[in-house]
Amino acid sequence: MCIVESSSWLPLWFTDRDGSITGIKGRIIDTNILVKGDRLFLIEVKSRAELDHVDVLYGKTRAVEKYLNRNVDKVFWLP
Questions:
Q1: 1, 15, 18, 46: which has the fewest C-beta neighbours closer than 10 Å?
Q2: How much is the mean pLDDT over the chain?
Q3: Which residues pair with 34 in a beta bridge?
Q4: In a domain? residue 1
Q5: What's the Cα-to-Cα distance from 38 to each of 34, 41, 49, 71, 72, rounded to whole Å?
Q6: What pLDDT score does 1 carry?
Q7: CB within 8 A of 63, min separation 6: which ones?
Q8: 45-67: burial string, b at 16+ Cβ within 10 Å, e else
Q9: Three-class DSSP category at 29
Q10: Closest CA to 31 of 69, 62, 70
Q11: Which residues pair with 48 in a beta bridge?
Q12: Average pLDDT over residues 52-66
């Protein structure tokens, strides 16, 4: 098990003004990322996960990949 300090996460917040990233004008993406070497991790902190949260997380992951022009290597969901 690898423990990652929350102080090493970077907050990522952006607005898709024209809808070119998410397909919806004005959508705000707010999440955390961690870059280790050449790997990119997406970290989502939620107290619980419901099915619609999982769908939203998938969309966030695709939006972050498009915004950063880089693949997300792994997604972590932390309580």
A1: 1
A2: 90
A3: 41
A4: no
A5: 11, 10, 29, 10, 10
A6: 53
A7: 16, 21, 22, 27, 29
A8: eeeeeeeeeeeebeebbebbeee
A9: strand
A10: 62
A11: none
A12: 93
Give the range of the structural domain holding residue 13, as residue numbers without chain letter: 9-78
Q: Is 3 within a domain? A: no
How high is the pLDDT of residue 54? 86
Predicted local confidence at residue 78, as pLDDT:
84
Q: Could you report the per-residue pLDDT of 4-41, keeping only the tens digit for each? A: 666 688 999 999 999 999 999 999 999 999 999 899 99
Mean pLDDT across the stretch 74-79?
88
String of DSSP letters for 41-74: EEEEE-S---HHHHHHHHHHHHHHHHHHTS---E
Give me the pLDDT at residue 7, please.
62
- Looking at the structure of the chain, the number of domains it has is 1
Show the tokens assigned to 24.
């919806």
In this structure, is residue 17 part of a structural domain? Answer: yes
**CA–centroid distance for 26 within its chain:** 17
